[in-house]
Amino acid sequence: MSETPEEPTGPRRVIGTPSPAPKAVDTPTESEQPAFSAEPENVRHAKNAERLVAALFVLAFLAGCGFIAAYIGLEIGTATIPPGANPVVAVLRSNLGLGISLSVALLALGTGSIIWVRHLTPNIEIAEERHELRSEPEERKAFQREFAEGAAISQVTRRPLVRRTLLLATAPLALAPLVLLRDLGPLPQTDLRHTVWRKGLRAVTLGGLRPLQPADISTPGSMITVIPEGYQDDDDALAKAGVILIKFGPDELHIPTNYDGGTLVSTMNWTVDNIVAYSKICTHVGCPVALYEQTTHHILCPCHQSTFDAANGANVIFGPAARALPQLPLMLDSAGYIAAASDFTQPVGPSFWERG
Amino acid sequence: MSDDAVKIPPAVSGVGGWLDDRFHGARGVRVLMRKVFPDHWSFMLGEIALWSFVILLLTGTYLALFFQPSSAPVIYHGSYTKLDGLTMSQAYASTLNISFDVRGGLLMRQIHHWAAIMFMVAIMAHMLRVFFTGAYRKPREINWLIGVVLFTLGMIEGLFGYSLPDDQLSGAGLRITEGVAQGIPIVGTYISYFLFGGEFPGTAIIPRFYILHVFLIPGIILALVTAHLFIMFHQKHTQMPMKGNTEKNVVGQPFWPYFLLKGQAWFFFIFGALAALGTFAQINPIWLYGPYTPLAISSASQPDFYMGILEGSLRMMPAWEINFLGHTLSLSVLIPALLPLGIIFTGAALWPFFEQWATGDKSFHHINDRPRNAPVRTGIGVAAVSFYAVLLLEGANDVIANAFQIPLYTVTWISRVAIFVVPIGGYLVTKRICLALQRKDANMLIHGVETGWIRQLPNGEFIEEERPVTEEERAVLEARHDFQPLPSEEDVDENGVPAPAARGPLGIARKFANRAFTETVAVPEGHGDGHGPAHEAVEGNGHGEIEGGEHAAIGSHEEQ
To answer: Is residue B371 within 8 Å of B133, Cβ to Cβ?
Structure first.
């Protein structure tokens, strides 16, 4: 047994830590207080411990002073550090200076305190009596009687009309906080079914806001994220309207299908020059599907790894997403730029109850 | 101490007297000072959570002095020059300022984040300790329930907290929150719209999460922590099975001065460890993630570890979705979002009552169980831990796939099987191990402790020396609380009708559970002094076996 210290009886195997010094156990009562002494058993040991604790507390004091010094001495921010100095390095220095001094101060205090309690204070254990939690039967009876009496005096038990009307009165007030929450937001309406895409709205690159011609995405296998032109600062619009354009080689693209309303239709005519547009919002819980593997045409959502086959209408081939990525009908506008031919024909993003 | 052994300083008699004149506090404070705190390393786990919470309040208050919970766009011109000129939310800009323009701000941010993780780790470790030692049993069920609520609140509080800086990673988390909210049947869309003040992302969510994060939830946590401590104080600590520890006493060191010094030391240690982590271990470097934009994401987007179980269950789930009557029921969102946490939280909350029901044990328990002496409980605990672990690991399946060069889908398929197999296997194996350890304990009581000394007898036979167990060891080995079997089907009244409790499907289920709970290896009787008749009998042939059949042992031992 290694859980308990063993007494040396018979041949003994040495296991684990040495047994601690015997503990003085006493059971104090109200009348008879124990007379234990604050004097240590081993004066020399106690003296050494005292010096060590004091040294640690001095160390904590010095480290605490160091913390203040580091705060004053180690400037950060471009306004205060010398011109040309790297502000990130300044933060790193300040963080190290403040952090090391704070850690040393706290750990020295902790170590000092624990040496104090383990080596300076005599090891005394006491046993406290555990009283029964349940009250005496008479006490319980008395409580029950008094409670029932009080209820009777208040008439609440005798006059159900008063009791019930009181409950009635509180019911709407209890609902009031819920009612007040109504204006937290607008009702959903049909927002989730639409995006800002409309016929003729150009697709521009996410980074440079550049409109694209089919010739700009000429390499088969390339993927690019586009957004509706003019909506670059509208996060609410972008959160639904982000689109990926994927360019396919001549024979790589199988005839894609997509739901138009409730019916599955062939969408080959939604593509432009073998460029297909899919919603970038995952149909699982809405992460941007950002990873594209050229060789397999797989689109992977990095959040929960739903995988969509871009060459086959972005159908789900693995993961928790239940539906293909909606496809955006494309066209070329009069200037030859890639634009939407209409809005998405089904809601983008995660499923919701009213989606149908 | 006796009056003459110690001189009472005037500060105590003077100030104390002044206060006592007004509050009549001498008696109450004396009780507090002599309050006994049993000493066991595992009792410090809950204290880690407590001190982490204190540090969270301290650092969080400091951060709130500088943080601006607003989605309003600003153009950044602060000290992190790489993002100079970028449009971002005030929340993100002020978090950059805390990190790069407030001295000690980065340290406080990192300590705050580490403390949150420490808080959750400590809560889990503490809950596991309480569970495996049976410390939740009567009369402590309410405190166990408070603990379960604190665990839940800690998760929510953490989610709200790391959503505030409005960096790319926290925005991805919010997006998932929105998607999950929309997956709730009937009211999901409304919940999402009311939470975000309209469509995602909107501008309402950060100030809303902020007030919940800094006021409402910490307030509730503080109140529940206070209640938790008061109930513990009132009911007194449990204690480990040891010599001198009984159901009627609490053995340990008094609050004054021991626990005060130890508690102080522990606070400094935890604060010091968190400060060291905040110094050397970078956490949530939001400046590297960049401000949130709805269309950017990085791979290996993992939340903090305590949300990993939700992430893992979302990743593990197959694509199930039901369409009916013009409605969509997104099971691939709903099941992973609700089921695993529901199983763990509801299971944890109901367990004490289930155990009472299945065992019929309504007695008070102040001495903790050794995990081996409650095989069903320990097995269920291991099953729960492994259930949680599989989900947590699946939450990092991309990292695992990358680190071990296993295909990603294979990792997910392994987890889909493991989520069923590992907990069941864990239960069965653990229960067997517990019973084997019980057998070992019983052996030790009969034969004594193996010393490792080999002796050759004159006839050439080798034997191993054994020494009798010590009083301390015996106290631990014999501290057992075995459950009594409920009335079985043989217990019929004179008309052949089984006892009411054993009837019906519920009665049968109870009987089934009861049979599992009462499977145990008996503590050998009559070895109190090491010279009992049974002892002699077993020693007689030198190779006596413990009666191996667990069923044979049912009810053969009665704890006084």
So the answer is: yes
What strands, in cross-sheet order, belong to the sheet with A307-309? A291-293, A298-300, A307-309, A315-318
In this complex, is the C-beta atom of B545 within 8 Å of any C-beta atom belonging to chain A? Answer: no
Kindly provide the residue ranges of all beta strands, DSSP E only, lying in B308-461, ordered along the sequence.
322-324, 327-329, 449-456
* pLDDT at residue A355 is higher than 80: yes
Host H or E run for residue A266: strand A263-266
Helix (H, G, I), strand (E, B) or coil at A287: coil
- CB count in 10 Å sphere of residue A283: 30
User: Minimal CA–CA distance to A265: which of A210, A338, A218, A324?
Assistant: A324
CATH top class, domain A196-355? mainly beta
Cβ of B261 and A94 within 8 Å? Answer: no
User: In chain B, what are the domains?
Assistant: 1-33 (no CATH), 40-307 (1.20.810.10)
Q: Which residues of B336-369 are buried (b: 16+ CB within 10 A; e: fewer)?
A: bbeebbeebeeebbebbeebebbbbbeeebbbbb
Sequence-distant (≥ 6) Cβ neighbours of residue B119 within 8 angstroms = B49, B52, B53, B56, B154
| pLDDT given for residue A338 in this prediction | 96
Distance between alpha carbon B152 and the CA centroid of its chain, in Å?
A: 11
Residues B315 and B397: beta-carbon distance below 8 Å: yes
- Pick among A121, A135, A352, A354 to test the B interface (most B CBs inside 10 A): A352
Q: How far apart are CA A76 and CA A73, in angstroms?
A: 10
Kindly report the pTM of this predicted structure.
0.89
Residue of A13 and A42 predicted with greater confidence: A42
